[in-house]
Amino acid sequence: xxKQKLVYVLIAIVVVVIAGSLINCLFHTNRSSPAxxxxxxxxGPPGGAQAKQRVVLRIATTTSLDAxxxxxxxxxxxxxxxxxxEVTWVSVGTGQAIEIGRRGDADMLIVxxxxxxxxxxxxxxxxxxxxxxxxxFVLLGPPExxxxxxxxKGAVEAFKAIFQAAEQGKAVFVSRGDKSGTNLRExxxxxxxxxxxxxxxxYKETGQGMAQTLMVADQLGAYTLCDRSTFLAFKDKIHxxxxxxxxxxxxxxYRAIPVNPKRLPNVHYNESLLFxxxxxxxxGQRVIGTYAKNGAKMFNVCFGxxxxxxxxxxxxxxxxxxxxxxxxELLARS
Amino acid sequence: MLxxxxxxxxxxxxxxxxxxxxxxxxxxxxxxxxxxxxGKTTLLKxxxxxxxxxxxxxxxxxxxxxxxxxxxxxRMQEKIAxxxxxxxxxxxxxxxxxxxxxxxxxxxxxEARRRTEHWLTTLRLxxxxxxxxxxxxxxxxxxxxxxxxxxxxxxxxxxxxxxSSLAPSTAELVQDILKSYAREKNCYAIVVSHSTAEAxxxxxxxxxxxxxxxxxxxxxxIPEEEILKWI
Amino acid sequence: xxVSELLQITLLTIRVSGTAVSLSSIVGIxxxxxxxxxxxxxxxxxxxxVNTFMGTPPVLLGLVLYLLLSRSGPLGFLGVLxxxxxxxxxxxxxxxxxxxxxxxxxxxSLPRELKEYVDSLALPDFYKVLLLVNEARIGILSGVLAAxxxxxxxxxxxxxxGGNIRYYTRVLTTAIVFYTSSGDFDxxxxxxxxxxxxxxxxxTAVLLxxxxxxxxxx
Lengths: 334, 231, 218
Hints:
The structure holds three protein chains of three kinds.
Chain A: H1 3-28, E1 55-62, H2 63-68, H3 70-81, E2 85-92, H4 94-102, E3 108-111, H5 114-122, E4 130-141, H6 155-167, E5 173-175, H7 181-192, E6 203-205, H8 210-220, E7 224-227, H9 228-234, E8 241-244, E9 251-258, H10 269-280, H11 282-289, E10 292-293, E11 296-297, E12 300-301, H12 314-317, H13 323-333
Parallel strand pairs in A: 1-2, 1-3, 5-6
Antiparallel strand pairs in A: 3-9, 4-7, 4-8, 4-9, 4-12, 10-11
Helix pairs in contact in A: 10-11
Chain B: E1 2-11, E2 14-24, E3 29-33, H1 40-47, E4 55-60, E5 63-64, H2 70-77, E6 80-83, H3 94-104, H4 109-122, H5 138-151, E7 156-160, H6 168-185, E8 188-192, H7 196-202, E9 205-210, E10 213-219, H8 224-230
Parallel strand pairs in B: 3-8, 3-9, 6-7, 7-8
Antiparallel strand pairs in B: 1-2, 1-4, 4-5, 9-10
Chain C: H1 3-37, H2 43-53, H3 58-69, H4 84-108, H5 112-120, H6 125-135, H7 137-153, H8 156-162, H9 172-181, H10 185-214
Helix pairs in contact in C: 1-4, 1-6, 1-7, 2-4, 3-4, 3-8, 4-7, 4-8, 7-10, 9-10
């Protein structure tokens, strides 16, 4: 009973177990660098030469979009059509998603903040961005509506009204305060209304997600800006009601933007294009347009339809160089 | 010859050893007696190269010990077996307690097994071989520590009160074993003893250490009454 | 949540934290013990550093690792960002100081006579450490347990370097974050229950191990 040998054997076993686990783990990451052999066999047609190298497409998107479950639905249809591509996504705040894109840690973005997206594209990090769906924000508040928001003729007036009422101590506003898409839109509306709520005692910043922020607003009987889908999901659990809606400023436009391969060469550009074209294809638009959660339809499709919503964006609509034209041609070719 | 020359050691303000010198010859047992706090344990620790003296030096078979040179010190320590007062045991069986240090010292397994079994038998520990060492009585632990020390086949044996927890008959057995061991192996043996009777039985040379100084040295016949004067 | 997904998340949690802590134990126990037995010039500084890093905020570690492992970062070529490998690395770095520091103090608090005796045996350092680690195993095992608990319950590091990708890099703690932010509190409670069970299981398992291993120690 050689204790020394026993110790060595034990250490050897542990090391082997760890090494095996690590190797197993590294293979499961499905790194699609050409040097590494494909982890799982392709499920394409058994016609031989189709053993396409498995690619993991990585999307950077927002937590609110992820929470709707849309991507899970799209993933199913997309992977059925392109079985060698595995669609994964990292869901974080809008700002972080864009930063991830800038660093080339994701192959494409799906976000909903026009200003930041335009910056991303103009700085050369994103190419061929296209708006494919939209929903809208609604202004929620206590049914008694102490600020008289119901009568307001549009978002800017509504926010002005809330500010005045709040300064008089008649109303409270709850903000997400987390630089998310919703939060950024809310800040935009405040600035368009020409007022600064930051630091005011009636302006509560939760720093949290939409659901939690709703709960807080409900508890406080406060006004808050919310995306329609989340509101519909929680409608029956809270007392707040929609007091203002419909203004184009409330529109939440979703855009998919592949990361520029000339800038960040390691991204899976072809797969990104395939995915984005799927989103704007008739089949994809159908999947998105009919997607419902808890019985409520969450998105409206708008590929090629932005003008009808009152938005004139040459980047998409230009006859010669617009992205709508680009994707129409791409779809026609495939 | 093993020589300790003009050893001085202080702990803070107090001088524990004040100019202590002694000499040991192979095959002979040197015993050190003295009252508590005389510095006996410290002297033994210095001889075991565990702690350097503040002044003075140790000389082993003609080589001066350089306490600052780790490699040299280690090589010298391989010849030494040191038995502290309340000997610690490893958390393992009695058998492993003896066997393991031998193997770690590089002795091959067959030889290690032979030595372990020899000392287990000689010191009457065979029946406890598989027991967890912590479950032994104080006296048994001391026997175990002794077996461990002797199994190493040291050239220098440094024992600090090796029979303090033993019954008189067992103590005598140990004393006899020590005497024959020192002679057969022709090694150095320095024993700190708590008992003058024991000193009388085993000592070839006896030093009386009081308050950090050697007050008397006896060789050959040990007059008990003389010793008792100092303690 | 479907049982199969819950199982997948739980197994991933155990795999990530288990691997990370196994690795940091292998390195940390030896490192900590060596620091305990050797005297060297910068020893006090090293010990202080180790103790300071024990309290590294996981989210800070996660951020630093993210910047290193990002494609635009120096280690981007490894391509491990947003994979379990990065999560294991993060938790390895997080728990290494814990195991190291607690091993050092476990060995240093062994009785002086024992350490002196082992010194007197004039063994090479490796064997010295072996003997002392065996004697200090209760303290060391407590250190490993503390590290494992920390790994399983942390969220900051793994969420940043792992990305909380469903079926891929989502563990119990990050799943709780996701479902909380989407308002699915029922699922959050399920996950919380499982996390508590895992936590208790770890504690019980190592407690039993401590009993068996510590059996017959002084």
